Amino acid sequence: MIRQLTIPICALLAALMMSAAFAAIDPLPFKDRAQELRFQELTKQLRCLVCQNESLNDSSAPLAADLRRDVFAQMQAGKSDADIKQWLTARYSDFVLYDPPLRGGTWLLWFGPFLVLLVSAMAAVVIVRRRAAAATNTPPADGRSTNDTEDDW
Amino acid sequence: MNARLLPLAGFVLLLALLSFGIWWSQHHDLREVPSPLIDKPAPAFSLPLLYDPAQSLGSKELAGEPYLLNVFASWCFACREEHPILLNQGKRLGVKLVGFDYKDEAADAKRWLAQYGNPYDVVIADLPGNVAIDFGVTGAPETFLVDAQGVIRYKYISPITPDIIATELQPRIAALKGAKP
């Protein structure tokens, strides 16, 4: 009985999931395929302000639909991607961009990982040098290394 | 320095970073979108009145005295939390309280205000949500304090609490009134 029901239930679930996926996409009358691709590309770089882990392209939140409509309208009006991003950041700050611009407040965001890498590389160099020095200073007795730091670790 | 202590130092450093992260996320709402509009002129707008859609009210009519713009909607669950506080303290704030009905059917909003009470001096309705986008609204409730010159002085996201009124809104309103009685 249960096995007989599995396939219809799976089909139903799949249909439900697909309808949810389609619900997030509102039909917009694009001029051509190139404009549609440009729209998809741009909205993927913009963050939905409601479901903040989704892009404007993915989100089915009403605000995201409104913003998609506005982005589309501005594209039709001949605005560039930079103009549209500027229009959005004037209202929602850099928060709306998944790719934050490089400026005073964001330098740590951009260069922080390199800073961490640099500090850890320096620490690694110091440790390796010290160990090398310790190994050459104490000649091995009875053929095996007596490097005490190595044994401890 | 003893090299044996290095891993411990690294661990302590990570622990400190983790504790800082926990502390930070408890004192800040990480989902809060910072508003670039603070201390900038509020967008020019004109919206129909909820109770008289033939008439409209906008930035032009509201200029000249400070006002509190409170974004609400009948579909907004958190607004119910904030509503009794506005009903209780709204009149005592000393500024015009403008209700901003966001993406809401007029009938629903009227029913909601009839049921829970109407704390607003005037209610404007933004059904398409375009003016809300100009204000950088991300949801409801949100509250804006606009001064007599039409400059946004303060924005608060999420339900207003008596604490927020006492510590954030009242000092700012008093300062605005002091500057221009």
Account of the 3D structure:
The complex is a heterodimer of chains A (153) and B (181). Chain A has 6 helices and no strands. Chain A has 153 residues and is mainly alpha-helical. Chain A folds into 2 domains: 21-101, Orthogonal Bundle (Helicase, Ruva Protein, domain 3); 107-138 and 145-152, no CATH class. The longest helix of chain A is centred in the C-terminal third of the chain and has 31 residues, at 107-137. Chain A is elongated and about 80 Å long. The model of chain A has no long low-confidence stretch (mean pLDDT 81). In chain B, the strands form 2 sheets. Chain B has a 5-stranded mixed β-sheet with strand order 5-4-3-6-7. In chain B, strands 1-2 form a two-stranded antiparallel sheet. Chain B contains 6 helices and 7 strands, in the order H-E-E-H-E-H-E-H-E-H-E-E-H. Chain B is α/β, with parallel strands linked by helices and 181 residues long. In chain B, strand 6 and strand 7 form a beta hairpin. Chain B has helices at 6-27, 59-62, 77-89, 106-116, 130-134, 162-179, and strands spanning 46-48, 56-58, 67-72, 96-102, 122-126, 142-146, 152-157. Chain B has a single domain (37-179), classed as Glutaredoxin, CATH 3.40.30.10. The interface between A and B is medium-sized, with 20 and 19 residues.
DSSP strand tally of chain B: 7
What's the overall average pLDDT of chain B, rounded? 92
> Mind describing the biggest β-sheet of chain B?
5 strands, mixed
Please state the overall shape of chain B, judged from the principal axes of the Cα atoms.
elongated
